[in-house]
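User: For documentation purposes, I need each entry recorded in a consistent format: the amino acid sequence on its own, followed directly by the corresponding structure tokens. There are two entries in this batch. Please keep commentary to a minimum and don't merge the entries.

Assistant: Recorded as requested. Entry 1:
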Amino acid sequence: MFESLYLKVLRYARHPHAPRYLAALSFAESAFFPVPPDVMLIPMALANPRAAWRLALLTTAASVLGGLLGYGIGYFALAAIEPWLQQWGYWEAYQTARDWFGRWGFWAVLVAGFSPIPYKVFTIAAGALAMNPLGFVLASFLGRGGRFFLVAGLIAWGGERLEQAIYRHVRTIGWASVALVAVAIALYLLLR
């Protein structure tokens, strides 16, 4: 089951339109979409390690542009989206992002590229707090770029050996992932 899914994902990752979809996902994730671009960047870099650096640059550029949309949402429409932030469970993360901005400003955005807090929360908070737009773009490019180039670099470094190793262990990886998701759901339901 997992072997065929893995091969299908790699086939989709080699699709000629896959970079467009990666750019669209990266853009959307920085402003409003919940799925991180890593879910596409990783298999695409794995399917074509020579293109890993180009894919990381594409992901970074689209993410920064999407971050500007998130900044605009925070700057112009925070009051309108506040109920959604609360409803979707982002309000606490938004408050944390605001606190980080109050303490560290530029550095908060830079670190946000690697943070477990969704990046869109930082882009919206940066706009809501009217962060310097040039500083925001620079910090976004460095933070997000650092993350995506690190991911792409590790995949490119592993290359074909990594792809074969994953394929050999894909069943174990798949069942471990299913178990982790089940545990996470159980913990969420127990701690609610």
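Entry 2:
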Amino acid sequence: MHHPVRVLFLCTGNSARSQMAEAFLRTMGKEHFAVFSAGTEPKALHPLAVQVMREAGIDISGQRSKDLTEFLNQEFDYIITVCDRARDNCPTFPGDNARIHWRFEDPAAARCSEAEQLGVFRRVRNEIRTRVSIWQPAILKKLREAGVKP
């Protein structure tokens, strides 16, 4: 395992879920994680993702959607897919990486009023924050146990 731990979050559009996960881990993990996100079919950053992350105290307005092909020749310790389509279409990356699947509802696909969709974005944001806040300290513990001082 590298230090900083290299993590790639993957989803289909890289417009919301993977962007939020990237921002949360970057914020919580500080210098111990090198965090990236990408999409199998990237779309523009969703404005409601920017809004709900700002509500959580994190500005992602400067982030951009990226195609996973930008990362195909890079090594990662963890590849985390946040939707089934990304999991099913995830290519092979070099190195000895662990693949993890965290399925979250796609808030951008919610068919409802904008106010209701904002609620879906908030719920998904909170689910992602919870998952990252549990996973990140476990990985740091694993590093310490391996003799790496994070």
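Summary note for entry 2:
The beta strands are 5-11, 33-39, 78-81, 98-101.
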